[in-house]
Amino acid sequence: MSKEINTIAVLTSGGDAPGMNACIRAVVRTGLAAGKTVKGIRRGYAGLLDEDIFDMSAKSVSDTLQRGGTILGTARCLEFKQPEVQQRAASICNKHGIDGIVVIGGDGSFQGAEKLASFGVNTIGVPGTIDLDIACTDYTIGFDTAVNTAMEAIDKIRDTSTSHERCSIIEVMGRKAGYIAEWCGIANGAEEILTYEEYDHDENRIIENIKHMRRIGKKHFIIVNAEGVGDSENMAKRIQEATGMETRATIIGHIQRGGSPTATDRVYASLMGAKAVDLLCEGKSNRVVALKHGELVDFDINEALKMQKTLDPYMVDVSKRLSR
Ligand code: ADP
Ligand code: F6P
Fold it and tell me: For domain 145-257, which architecture applies?
């Protein structure tokens, strides 16, 4: 028999992502509309262990939809990997009358959510990461905003690169996933896209390509480098030395994690937050909300964590053809 849910809590965990506030707002407002008490937990699992828990009202999420970051704060809480700590967290939920939790975060956060579920707290994960590296879903909160932020930055670098006839190596985020790099590479018309998944580390090929492009009159050479590949500064030195083309490295960094979310991030984050509440109200637990082929669906967390995905080979192929 499924447990009746009276009180829902929401937390954000791992790296923040633009759109997390839209999701929190949706959890709060749809939870309240369903007649539930809604509580916020500050600083992810760390705040849960510190009992940093407070009641949320419709007003407490006013004026947050358009803001980047997360109003709840977030943390990486390594001690949460210990079973005794997870059990303590479940007891804290019981103490505060929390029957269900919405965890907005990435794969790591979902592993924590799965553990909470195993200790009797109904949990629903919502994919929130700029990296897009959650296998069960085609969309993660924050990716669209991050890509647009990086794209605009690369456009600006391209302007000055062209004026000075330089090669620019631009490092984007994504941990070990090349989605931001691949999207920016296509959106910015990069000559090279180096991703952890695809890069063969053949720098000589890149050098020969730069020389060829210069001979045929190209005024810039844009390399989008995913951070998983790394070493942009040293690569710039080596390329300048080998090609004679002035080369600069720019690491875009945390600017990609902030800023006002795009419409896509606001809307899907809102839908996913509402879906998480609907699942809890149906008595579901240990599920992840996902967007698959344009449809909102949900998966068992354990199944979701076992799934794998990689860059779309067609997208990779097209990006190569476009860069010639
Ligand atoms: P993300 O959720 O974006 O993947 P992390 O991998 O940093 O980010 O994980 C966020 C948090 O989730 C961690 O700091 C920890 O509190 C929790 N977490 C990660 N892995 C586990 C695990 N194996 N078991 C329990 N909790 C975990
Ligand atoms: O997971 C999001 C992300 O921004 C990654 O792209 C990046 O590798 C990492 O987090 C950076 O983490 P931190 O904010 O701890 O430097």
Answer: 3-Layer(aba) Sandwich (3.40)
Interstrand relation of 192-194 and 100-105 (parallel, antiparallel or unpaired): unpaired
The pLDDT score that the predictor gives to residue 1 is 57
Q: What pLDDT score was predicted for residue 4?
A: 87
- How far CA 309 is from CA of 37, 59, 277, 314, in Å, comes to 37, 39, 27, 14
CATH number for the domain formed by residue range(s) 7-142+261-306 = 3.40.50.450
Alpha-carbon span 132 to 84, nearest angstrom: 31
Sign of CA dihedral 275, 277, 58, 112: negative
Determine the pLDDT at residue 80. Answer: 97
Point out the catalytic residue in the list 107, 131, 133, 298.
131
Does any ligand 2 atom lie closer than 6 A to the CB of residue 15?
yes
User: What's the pLDDT score for residue 230?
Assistant: 80
Report the C-alpha gap between 113 and 178 in whole angstroms.
Answer: 26
How far apart are the CA of 110 and the centre of ligand 1, in A?
Answer: 7
Residue ranges, the chain, pLDDT below 70: 1
Q: State the pLDDT at residue 3.
A: 78
Ranges in the chain annotated CATH 3.40.50.450: 7-142+261-306
Residues carrying CATH 3.40.50.460, the chain: 145-257
150: nearest Cα among 164, 136, 132 = 132
Statement: the pTM of the whole predicted model exceeds 0.85: yes
Q: Are 277 and 38 a contacting pair, CB within 8 Å?
A: no
Alpha-carbon separation of residue 122 from 164, 245, 270, 313 (angstroms): 57, 58, 20, 37
Q: Work out which ligand 2 atom sits closest to the CA atom of 256.
A: 4
